[in-house]
Structure formats: C-alpha cells, structure tokens
Design a protein that fits this description.
Blueprint lengths: L15 H13 L1 E3 H9 L8 H14 L2 E6 L2 E6 L3 H19 L2 H9 L3 H25 L1
Antiparallel strand pairs: 1-3, 2-3
Helix pairs in contact: 1-3, 2-3
Length: 141
C-alpha cells in the first residue's frame, strides 16, 4: 500500500491533455517538451502545437504536479509525486468527500451492499485501523 505523500499538488483537478502529458512524464522520468510533443505527434491522427505542450507543462507546474529543471537551454520536466502517490491522494480525497456528505446510516447501507471481496477489504482496513489505534494508545500510555 502506498502511503499518502507529505507533498501534495496545489490543485488536484486535471484536464484530459494535462492527464495525458502527466502520464508521459510519469512514464519517462525526465522529459523535455520536445520529447512530449514528439510522442503526441507519433499518432498520425493528432495535431498539437509545441506551444500548447509548453502551456500545459507550465499549467501542471503551477498546479504542483511537476517541476522544471533547466540544463543549458533545455527545460526538463519531472513529476513531483509518483503515479501511485497520486492515486493514493485521489482515493483519500474521494473517501473524504463521500464521508463529508454521508451520515453513518448511509455509509452503513453502502457497506451492506458491497460484494464479498470488498467486505474482506473493509475488514482488513478495520483490523489495520484497530492495530494503529492500539499502537498509539501504547505510545501515549
């Protein structure tokens, strides 16, 4: 299980092109805008200006998803968090939104309709939470 990272992007919402380019950055570790532009244009049915790629990269940087390093005259882009960390943040945010708008009865009704595999996961989560609470109590006591 990937723990929540200490660093979180400022804005979690991403558009389709932002998501596509971020996935390329995750796959490529460290890429220049030309590398990303070339990957997009590798699809003969796609057209996208280099300036548009730069705009999206800057937007991803402003949102806190990627960082830029300059080497000579070339800008290289790197993810600030891993894809798994981003998935953990997304799951955390979705769960919190669900719990914010739900009362205990609604959550219980939702849990009651889950399949066996999901129930097994919930039981494992409950067991882990119990272990965490016991560890905290021992440390405090």
């Amino acid at each position: 299980m990937t723990p929540l990272p200490k660093y979180r992007p400022k804005h979690l919402s991403l558009g389709p092109l932002e998501t596509e380019i971020l996935n390329m950055v995750w796959d490529g570790i460290r890429l220049g805008a030309t590398d990303i532009h070339d990957r997009i244009l590798a699809d003969p049915d796609r057209e996208l200006a280099y300036g548009s790629v730069m705009t999206v990269l800057r937007r991803l940087e402003q949102k806190g998803w990627i960082k830029c390093e300059k080497e000579g005259r070339v800008l290289y882009w790197q993810a600030r968090i891993s894809k798994k960390e981003a998935q953990a943040i997304t799951a955390y945010e979705q769960l919190n939104r669900f719990l914010e708008v739900s009362n205990a009865d609604m959550v219980a009704a939702f849990a009651n309709d889950l399949d066996r595999a999901s129930i097994d996961k919930l039981e494992a989560i409950a067991a882990r939470l119990q272990n965490i609470r016991q560890s905290r109590e021992q440390q405090e006591g």
